[in-house]
Amino acid sequence: MAVNLGHLALHCGEPETALRWAASAQVAIGTAASPAIRAAITAVVARANARMRRESEATKLIIQAEKLLDTAYHEDEPAWIRYFNHAYLADEVAHCLHDLGRAPAARSQLAEALAGVGEDRVRRRAIDAALLAATWLRTGDLDRACAAGRDAVAYAARTGSGRCIERVAGVLVDLKAHAGCAPARELREFARVVLPEADGMAVTLSGGS
């Protein structure tokens, strides 16, 4: 519950709330919970700290989460947390690094995250592709940003996830500054056809067409 509420708070732009939820759970469970559970909670604490630009604390927590997950045995973990493997942790680390302004390092983690997640995990792949687009845009590579954005649109169109739609809309808003460039125009048109909900949300968020 703490992990899910923490993620929701981060999605809503409330890192302080995410930190309260996850840190409280961290203290409450101590060492009683399994390594994967503790790693998942620690990762949320790391993300909250990264969002608040506390780089040294976030880094320490990322290392702690990695060490915990290294000690986890899949068969010994509760069934509901067995999804949380190194690929999922790489996704959490990528979000931390992106929030800390370390786009190349975030892309390295995203490569691991995407390589370890099946094609059927379209929600996860949509979110990671949108984040990948954001990292390329941050370092000025419009072509790669739009290629990743196209993947995000395609994956998000296969889900009913509002979170995915919002992530894609965010990419489209960020691309507004490049509206005169062919890759950005083509991505926007692709989104209009394939995922009109994201295109409409982007229009609302940007206050224009």
Walk me through what this model shows.
- By secondary structure, the protein is an all-alpha fold.
- Helix content is about 75%, strand content about 0%.
- It is built from 11 helices and no strands.
- The chain is elongated and about 55 Å long.
- The termini are far apart.
User: Beta-sheet strand percentage?
Assistant: under 5%
In terms of structural class, how would the helical and strand content be classed? mainly alpha
What is the terminal separation in angstroms? 39 Å
* Count of individual helical segments: 11
How big is the Rg?
Answer: 17 Å
Give helix % range: over 70%
Mean pLDDT: 93
Most strands sheet: none
Cα shape: elongated
Number of strands: 0
* Low-confidence runs of at least 5 consecutive residues: none
Q: How do the helices and strands follow one another from N- to C-terminus?
A: HHHHHHHHHHH
Give the SSE layout.
Blueprint: H1 2-11, H2 15-29, H3 35-51, H4 55-70, H5 86-99, H6 103-115, H7 122-138, H8 142-156, H9 162-174, H10 182-194, H11 196-206
Helix pairs in contact: 1-2, 1-3, 2-3, 3-4, 3-5, 4-5, 5-6, 6-7, 7-8, 7-9, 8-9, 8-10, 9-11, 10-11
Which key features would you list for this structure?
209 residues; mainly alpha; 74% helix; elongated
Describe the structure concisely for a colleague.
This protein is mostly helical. The protein has helices at 2-11, 15-29, 35-51, 55-70, 86-99, 103-115, 122-138, 142-156, 162-174, 182-194, 196-206. The chain contains eleven helices and no strands.
